[in-house]
## 1
Amino acid sequence: MEIIAQLGYILGLSFISGINLYATVAVVGICTRFELIQGLPPEFQVLANGGIIFVALMLYFVEFFMDKIQGLDTLWDSIHTIIRPLGGAMIALMQVGEASPALEVIVFMLGASLASAAHFTKAGTRLVINASPEPVSNILVSTGEDLGVVGFSFLTLAYPKLSFFLTLSCLALIMFFLPLLFRTVRMLFASLFFRTKSFFTRGLTKGDVLLLPFSLDTFFDEQKEKDEEIVWAGKAYASRVPSIRRLSSMHLVITSKAVYGLYRRWFRLHVRRLVRSEIKHYKYYPGRLLSRCHIKTPEETWLVQLYQPLGKTLPDSLAPAGEIGS
């Protein structure tokens, strides 16, 4: 069980450093210096230095306010993309004392990996939250992170064995939600790039609103009926489309007879089809970066997101007059 306790210190403190390095260092230093927790490893004495605690608290004070402002928090996270993983690695390394070079390298890589996982999860989540125009959610999440870091750091010092299992549970959750987070961040960056490109080119080209990439065009020719004509085509993301993973990239194609969703899964092209005569509801919801398109038949409901400039070009022939925004 001593090994689990040792791993609890290493894993827990390295992991939480990826969210807020300065708060973690400050908590460990204060608890060690003032003996708030008995029986801490002697390796923590270096963090009990008054100068280290003072600098950690000052930097945490700066981060506290930077983290509450939309835009500045993303900039701050970007600056700490290297700092937090290195800090987590150093905190892990200092705990092994005089160990073999091989063990030191292993612990260094382990600490850096844990801190990196926490950092990129935090940065990606905050980027998604910042897509919302209101600042309240950003402040609430940031405050929750502050309380969580302080609480988790203290818990790791007081109950390292419990911290070991909690850290593993957090890593499992990250691995489960990381693909969705990655797709969300990729979608936001792609939409920002498309919006910027549209601004500088002052308009959409025919390829943006009608033409499909060669591989998709060849595949689609095999799926559509001979007398079908493409009315509109463009890149989209599946918010809620049967059989398509949430926020996966897809192409929405509207023809004279149907609405198609073309997407890749396991490197293979697939298609979903809605017959236009069966569509009972169709509505367009404009947005700043991404717009939403809601299509509903008696059997299926599609909710897709499109780049905002593309959304404005959607045809209104699928819905009753006056129901489409522009």
Note: Confidence is low (pLDDT under 50) at residues 319-326.
## 2
Amino acid sequence: MPSLTTITTAPDLTFDALVAGEAGAPPVLLLHGFAESMHCWRAQLAALGDMGFRAIAPSQRGYSPRARPDPCDHPSYHIERLMDDAIAIVAASGYDGRRFHLAGHDWGGSIAWALADRHPERIASLTILSRPHPNAFNRALRMADGEQARRSRHHTAFLEPDAADVVLADDCKWLRERWAAQGMPAAAMAEHLAVLGNKDAMEAALAWYRARGTIRSPLGQIDVPTLFIWGDADDTVGRAAAEGTADFVAAPYRFEVLPGVGHFAADQVPDRVSELLVAHLRDHPA
């Protein structure tokens, strides 16, 4: 079973993390997105540990109280810093310079795509949940039908100064209703709110959006074996962006559609996500 630990990468950066498996086993780094936490990977951590991997799922910058720069210092939350954190967490876990498997959901998927573009020699395999390749996402945002733009309109709302108060209002009503509509179990909601359901953490989480703004930087072709998992009931990612990701992956690529599954697949259908992830890693050993 996963155990809770901390990982220190710098004097002012100590990350809470869930880990599973034996130290020294082939490493897997799992990056969460918004609005969730390291707990979204509980089932996958257990499955990976049982299959002989060392799985590491940190609560990332801003989500971990001891890795929380001032949210008003937006450059501290730029995606480049989030990428630096990921590489540093792998190194601090005993895998400095070694290849590792990488999985990401939502914002964690954005970080994972960027890492695969920047450091393909380090990434043995890439698994993405929900988040399309940025080029496919940008293309879908520009489509005349406006579907993806409508699905992504909350990203602009997150840039507003009062966004944290809006999201946290009425016992996090906005989050709870969205999670419920997307099929997240109540137990998973409680775990994520234990991390994110306070003003300091929420401001830091929204700082990721404020550091990026409305523009997603384009990336090149991905040369890492990639599994992309998308639920066709995802409220934030439409079919055009999801299917279009294939145009931007040059390495072996698998696109897995989960019928009736929403944005939070790892929480909603954990066994199916674990099955797909483990099979992908076995096909592409580090």
Note: The first strand starts at residue 3 and ends at 10.
